[in-house]
Amino acid sequence: MDRNWRDGELVPDPNDPSYHENQSSDNITINGEPEKPNDTVTFKPITITDNPDSKDKKKWDNGDDIKQGADFDLNAAPTTEITTTDTQNTVEESNQNNEAVTKTTNSKFIPVNKQISSKINLNKLIFVRNAFIYDENGHVVQEDGAYQIKTQGQKVKILDNGRVYTFDGQEYYKIDSGNPDHPYYVRTSSVGNAPKKQAVVMRGTLKKYRINVYSKNGKVIGTWKKANKVKFDKKMYKKGHTYYRIQSTKYWVRSTSVNFVKKQAKTNKNK
């Protein structure tokens, strides 16, 4: 299999039949499996009447009161220098007496005196872009002959308190593989904070006759019966998508399903 390297990272040939990227998609899943052409999926239809303000077209189209919220920050988590003389590549496990035992591994990834900033909650980190994962020999992990790729927005479990490792001049974090003796690694530039929900003041028209509505966890929980002019009061980012919450409800819609009223540009009346 041909291997191409770019900026110190292995980039498989897209024409390689084993190349497989698990991109996030809009496809409905059934019991965790992608929807098949012959599957029939029925969701509870949800009807919400048009927002009363939409009857006044001039007021509805006036975007002076709109607060869109800031763009979501999908940058890599910051790191800080740490003081330590421990440069062995080790893994910690328990013996029969439940005592911590540290042993050296043969991984080519070398720990350095740097780790994720202590201000960062390691339990809330996500992949901020689609990313390859690597085994301890620096090879892209494959399953059934396909390269495994973590998709933007997926949660990630960082090991060793966010310790940074280097391999061929690039920086990586050690991540959980399900086997403590053989962890995986991911480029530090691929991991960052999960964006927080934001309060917004937005309004718009749903584009289609029927669109999916989602829970706060990004799961489909129903469909609109018809397009409505509705207001939104919160904004969140989940698994590569931006969602808006229909005001004072538990229902979220994807930004791509809405034609938003835009904030009006201010004009100088003295001209």
TrEMBL record:
Disordered: annotated span: 1-71
Polar residues composition bias: residue spans: 20-30
Residue ranges constituting the S-layer protein C-terminal domain according to the UniProt record: 120-178
Biased composition annotated in UniProt, kind: Basic and acidic residues: 52-70
Pfam family, one: SlpA
Protein name (database record): SLAP domain-containing protein
